[in-house]
């Protein structure tokens, strides 16, 4: 994707986010870009039908997730999740990108799926790599490393109206 197209896509997808999540995610994008990376928001808000399809095809473990969040009106898109790919390698994001995405997200009160499905020792190895800024550490990656969401909150809480401050 050209740089102009990537920026346009990111701007369009950022408009689908809850304001405080959007502000945090913009800082993540800026940090990654300052490191020479090209983050691209692939998905932000997702319709309930698209979420159900993701669940039914094994791409999500939730029938309602952070991607499905709407405003109090039940219509306006206020997603609390994105899938942020490495635009240079959209089908297979490289380890340095995934570790830097996780580090930038965590520095902004967000979490990624980089540790999902991993045992404690493998999650600890990721923690150590991020702490050392060793972007090429030989670590295993969880099942959804490009997914970004608020830290410390559940999708069930979001469904009942909770939002990150």
Number of helices: 6
What order do the helices and strands follow?
A: HHEHEHEHEH
> Uncertain segments of ≥5 residues (pLDDT<50)?
none
**Average pLDDT value?**
96
The span between the termini is 33 Å
Radius of gyration: 15 Å
| Percent helix | 40-55%
Largest sheet: 4 strands, antiparallel
Across the major sheet, the strand order is 1-2-4-3
Which class best fits the helix and strand makeup? alpha+beta
> DSSP strand (E) fraction?
5-15%
Number of strand segments: 4
The coarse silhouette is: globular
Description:
With 165 residues, the chain is of the alpha+beta class. Helix content is 41%, strand content 13%. Strands 1-2-4-3 form a four-stranded antiparallel sheet. The longest helix is centred in the N-terminal third of the chain and has 16 residues. The model has no long low-confidence stretch (mean pLDDT 96).
């Amino acid at each position: 994707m050209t740089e102009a197209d990537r920026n346009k896509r990111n701007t369009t997808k950022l408009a689908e986010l809850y304001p405080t999540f959007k502000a945090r995610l913009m800082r993540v994008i800026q940090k990654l870009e300052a490191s020479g990376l090209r983050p691209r928001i692939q998905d932000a808000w997702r319709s309930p039908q698209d979420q159900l399809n993701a669940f039914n095809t094994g791409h999500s473990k939730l029938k309602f997730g952070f991607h499905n969040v709407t405003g109090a009106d039940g219509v306006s898109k206020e997603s609390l999740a994105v899938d942020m790919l490495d635009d240079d390698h959209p089908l297979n994001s490289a380890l340095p990108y995934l570790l830097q995405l996780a580090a930038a997200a965590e520095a902004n009160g967000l979490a990624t799926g980089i540790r999902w499905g991993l045992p404690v020792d493998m999650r600890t190895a990721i923690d150590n790599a991020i702490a050392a800024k060793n972007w090429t550490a030989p670590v295993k990656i969880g099942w959804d490393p490009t997914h970004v969401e608020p830290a410390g909150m559940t999708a069930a809480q979001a469904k009942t109206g909770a939002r990150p401050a």
